[in-house]
Amino acid sequence: MKISVVFLDRDGVLNEDRDEYIRTVRDVKVYTYVPEAILQLTRHALSVIIISNQSGINRNYFSRETAEKIFDKVIQTAESSGGRITDYYYCPHTPEERCSCRKPRTGMIHQAVVDHRISLDEALMVGDSHSDYETARSAGIPFILVRTGKGKKTEEELKTADPDLMVVDNLKDAVSWIVRRT
């Protein structure tokens, strides 16, 4: 299996998630193992692209500017051991807006394909939610579920529907699995 790009969800995968949204930079709590995980992906010449639903913008919980600052904080922390995140995409829309970019739709992945000349045959996604799982399935790429964030609940929801679902404890374990196969 050749992997050249890893799509990552943000909240619940890179940083702690909150039911009431990550609304300020102070709310950002990146998991301690994330910088090393991103470094390992970078050392194996894998592109790392974040795709994240951020409906808090259109719900007026925070501004686009604040969302960008939150992403900057997550990325700076994730890259602090020398790894690199290639790019990030976010959808500001609410589910009611029925846009093409909000996960589980694949608009963010397809934009990254265009922007970075990605072959989906060499892509994989890591996430913690049912919408992440559905996004990967719709894009036709493998998916790894982490038990952080909403992952344990998602695992319960999906375990009978998809008995072959790849589940690991966290991003560090997902990266270990990925690098052993590249």
Task: Tell me about this structure.
Strands 3-2-1-4-5-6 form a six-stranded parallel β-sheet, sandwiched between helices. The longest helix has 15 residues, at 64-78. Helix 1 links the parallel strand 1 and strand 2. Helices cover 35% and strands 15% of the residues. The protein contains six helices and six strands.
* Portion of residues within helices: 25-40%
Task: List the domain count as a whole number.
Answer: 1
Report the span from N to C terminus. 7 Å
Give the SSE order as H and E letters.
Answer: EHEHEHEHEHEH
Average pLDDT score? 97
How large is the count of helical segments? 6
Low-confidence stretches: none
Largest beta-sheet characterization: 6 strands, parallel
| Cross-sheet strand order for the largest sheet | 3-2-1-4-5-6
Overall structural class, as computed from helix and strand content, comes to alpha/beta
Shape: globular
Q: Write the CATH fold name.
A: Rossmann fold
Looking at the overall shape, the CATH architecture is: 3-Layer(aba) Sandwich
Cα Rg: 15 Å
Query: Which class in CATH terms?
Result: Alpha Beta
**Beta-strand percentage?**
15-25%
Can you identify the CATH superfamily?
Answer: HAD superfamily/HAD-like
